[in-house]
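Q: Hi! First time doing this. I have a protein sequence and I read that you can turn it into a structure. Is that right? Here it is:
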Amino acid sequence: MEFTTPASYGSTIVRVSGVATDGKLLTAGIGGDVKHTATKQDSDNDWPEPTSASYHWTGKTADGQEFTAELEGALGTKYDRVDVMAEVPGFIKTIVASAAGTRPYIYQYAPKMTIKVKVGDEVKEEEGTLFTEATFIS
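A: Yes, that's right. Below is the predicted 3D structure, encoded as structure tokens:
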């Protein structure tokens, strides 16, 4: 998970992540990053909807070996777009959006992708389904 705090909190990037393979946790912590490598404007709410992303992890395993993992590519068809305030009456939603600048939307994707994991000198690739979401609030 990666998020950026609002400007009032210094626009700080906070990350928490973990990678597991073969039934064991390789690493968990704050090392890594996520980038939306391509986006398109959502015409309904003006958020930059991601269409492609890259994920990168770094760190050490529990036994002290250097570790990296890479995952990148097109996110494919959007699984869902959640309007967090969809059940709120329209006039209240408008007031909140204009007063607080809050327009929370969640974009969800579940593409097939291949992760490349390197532990020490050993490199392993594994295909699977990535569940990822991008949340925009304010």
